[in-house]
Every structure is written in structure tokens, then in C-alpha cells.
Amino acid sequence: MIIDTRNEASIVDGLSKLFNFSKKDFYAKIDTLKNNAQYGPFFKENFFDEEIENFLNINIQNLEELDEIYVYHLTRTKEEKNISIYSLDKVLLTENFFSNFLKEYGMSFKKYSDGIHLYYQDKDFTQNLILDKKSNSEKNVCSCYLLKRLGFTTKLDNCINGIFVSPTLYTDSFYYASLRDCPEILRNICNYFDINEMKRAYKLNTKYYCFIFKEKIENVIFDVDEKYGLIEKKKIFIKTLIKLLICNKDNKYKFDDEILYVRLDDKKTDIKIENIISLEENND
What is the rounded distance in angstroms from the CA atom of residue 162 to the CA atom of residue 184? Predict the structure, then answer.
């Protein structure tokens, strides 16, 4: 089973079916969970987590049906008939719109045993990045980010990532805003080399998209805790959906969008896209 997380109505419909509630009874249930965590004017989030945990433990058998989730990957790219998304190393090391755009500004990449080397105007800047990482210069943050993404740390970070609810439900999230103008790696390259016109040119020649794909929940890594087992993944997924519904219903409760972040294993280099949504109408 998969829960459609495109909008609030589809989430309610999916959760109601999962737990064999009518929609009316499901709304009543989450109101009860919320009210049990309300102490006068104060909402005790830790108590609310306990209430949902107890509810899920009582209905643990229903979670067995949940085996897939939708992942929403946001990026700016060129408008094409057949758009695909790939892991970062494949994007940088093969010929595609993004790597060709970088070449126009003198940027290229080569894979070596220690990682992916960044070249600017035919000069290998890997050692510069390493030196700047150790310094207190303005380039420290960008160099740390780039070295991590290029494979110069013990932990790889070239995966396909996203969030597990539609970004149109939470357009003021950091994730939504941070990718609106250009991909994160491009922003850090531009900031490191101080080439602001490259960011502007990229935005002018691209559109903001959301790629939607299905993935087995057991294969998805949750950023809040990458060691979650299958049951924990299902529980955090359901808990987050319930919290999102409550926050949308009563805006005095703040929703932490960081809990939405998920990613695939670094070895997974491409995926089958279910749908593509243009976010241009939401892009100021």
C-alpha cells in the first residue's frame, strides 16, 4: 500500500483506509490525540508524540500494509520532453544539460581514486578546496560542502534526495526555498568562485520542477535518523503526516520540515519518475 501525499485530502483518505476509519472518525481521532497533549494554552509536543506512539502500537498490524512512499525531488533544470534525475556523480561526470552549462563557465569534473576533482579554467582546484576547508576564510563553508559532495569525506553524499510530502503543502519550507533559484551545488560553486552571473543565467534558462517517484519504504533513508528500522520508518512517516494535518488545521502549531527529508542509497544512480510538476507558478 502507498499513501498519496500530494495534498491534505489524499493524505486523510490514505490514513483513513490504512486504519479502517471513516474520514470523519479519523479527524475526530487526531483531534483527540491533540487535545490529550494540550495543557491549558500549552501544547506539549513530547506528550503528543507519546499519544501517536500509543495509537500506532495499538494498531501496529495495520502498518504491515504500508510498503511504499512517494518521494518528491525538487530541482531547477531545462524544460525538456524527457527529463531525468540522477545521482550527483552521474550529473557531473556525464554529458547532460547541467554539466554542459558548467562547461560554458569553465567548470569540469574528473573522477580519481580519492574523489571527484573540480577543474576551473583547466586548473584542478581540489587542493585549494582542501586548504580553504582548513582556513577561517569566507570560502570555508563552500569548500566544506563541495569536498563532501565530491567524495572527499568518509561519508558519501551524492545521493538522490527529497521529501515525502508534496512541496505544495509547505512552500515556505527551507527545502523549497533553498532550491528555488538553482541547485545547491551550483550555489556553492558560484559562491566559492564569486561568479554570481552564473546563478542568474542558470535561473533565467531553467524552470523549477518537482519530480515524483515511488520507492520501497525499506529502501528510503530518513535524515533524522539513518539507522531507523522498517517499523520505525513507518511510524515516523505516519507521525509526520498526522502532525502536518494538525499544523495545517491549526496554524499556531509549528511544523518542523526537516523531518520530511529522505534520501536513497548513494549506489542508486537513477530512478523511474512517476510524474513531474512545474513549480514555476509558485516561484516568485
Answer: 13
Number of helical H runs and strand E runs in the chain? 11, 11
- What CA–CA distance (Å, rounded) separates 193 from 102? 13
Reported as a pLDDT band with limits 50, 70 and 90, residue 118 is: very high
Amino acid letter for position 77 = T
Distances (CA, A) of 85 to 73, 122, 201, 269, 271: 9, 27, 21, 9, 7
Contacts of 96 (CB under 8 A, 6+ apart): 86
Contact 2, 69 (CB under 8 A): yes
Across-strand partners of 209? 75, 278
Q: Residue 238 pLDDT more than 80? A: yes
pLDDT at 34: 80
Residue-level pLDDT at 216? 93
Q: At what angle do helices 45-58 and 230-249 cross, to 10 degrees?
A: 130
